[in-house]
Amino acid sequence: MLVNNKNQSSEKLLVLGSAGQIGSALVLFLRNLNFEVIEYDIATNANHDLRRWPNPELDSLISQSEYVFFLAFDVGGSHYLEKYQDTFEFSENNMLLMANTFKLLAKNRSKFLFASSQMASMSYSTYGLLKQLGERMAMAIGGRVVHFWNVYGFESDQDKFHVISDFIQKALRNKEIEMRTTGEESRDFLYVADCCEALTIVMENHSKLPMDMKLHITTGEYTKIIDIAKIIAKELNSTVRKGRGLDSVQRDARNAPDLSFQAYWKPRRSIEEGIFEIIQKMKQSGL
């Protein structure tokens, strides 16, 4: 297992999507390792729009950076995807931001990783198809592709809440977790701090990791959604009310992860530990 030590390097790292759930945590993680991190996200600066072309500012930032984390995407939890992923705007947003960013990464011959999803193999999902397209574009210009399963962490954009943030907010506000489904679906959950460590290891070993290695950033362990609800309900002294049917976005499809990357990295936190940390952060933020 590779170990990350404190780094005194003056290397500049660029995080595209720096205000997102993973991006915001990654910025803090990398700065704690003493890297100089450049943040870039339309959510915090309207000029940081990857859909805009030409974009000389982004071109300059990419040329200055030793490594680029391409995490930016128009995405949210299942409720957001159910509502928006089949709209023209959703596809247009993601196609534009990918085409423009990959063009500049290729021009600058940058070292970078592209954040994909286990849903990239689910052809019935517009989001999955777009991620699959992004993977092919990234690999065509020498980028590394990482696959996320279900990364969870503190979120501030309530319109894009994923399931754990959604359940915690409901428990805090209403003392009842009202579920959209029966909760019998199983997901492979990974706490965002463990994800940040994995991404840093990929960066530090960009050229050393075998090119044919599948970089699946995941635990390999599945938990039912209903069990997630019960963990949160117990911690916050709330009740759980089941919904009906299954998730219409992922349709309870499950891909078996390739765990070969765990020779270099392993997750540290249990699902209970991760949920407890998010509860504390959401209480402090007043969400």
Which helices and strands, and how do they pair?
Blueprint lengths: L11 E5 L4 H12 L3 E5 L15 H9 L2 E4 L7 H7 L3 H20 L4 E6 L8 H15 L3 E5 L1 E3 L10 H12 L1 E3 L7 E2 L1 E3 H13 L10 E3 L5 E2 H12 L2 E3 L29 H15 L2
Parallel strand pairs: 1-2, 1-3, 3-4, 4-5, 5-10, 6-9, 7-12
Antiparallel strand pairs: 8-11
Characterization of this structure:
The protein has a domain at 12-157 and 188-221 and 253-269: NAD(P)-binding Rossmann-like Domain (Rossmann fold), CATH 3.40.50. Helix content is 40%, strand content 15%. The protein has a 6-stranded parallel sheet, sandwiched between helices. With 287 residues, it is of the alpha/beta class.
Keywords, separated by commas or semicolons:
15% strand, 12 strands, globular, 287 residues, single chain
Number of strands: 12
Please tell me the CATH architecture of one domain by its name: 3-Layer(aba) Sandwich
Roughly how many Å is the radius of gyration?
Answer: 19 Å
Major beta-sheet overview: 6 strands, parallel
Trace the largest sheet across and list its strands. 2-1-3-4-5-10
The CATH topology of one domain turns out to be: Rossmann fold
Q: How much is the average pLDDT?
A: 91
From the spread of the alpha carbons, the general shape counts as globular
- Cα separation of the termini: 37 Å
The helix content, as a percent range, equals: 40-55%
CATH top level label of one domain: Alpha Beta
Structural class: alpha/beta
Structure annotation, total helices: 9
Considering the protein shown, what is the CATH homologous superfamily of one domain?
NAD(P)-binding Rossmann-like Domain
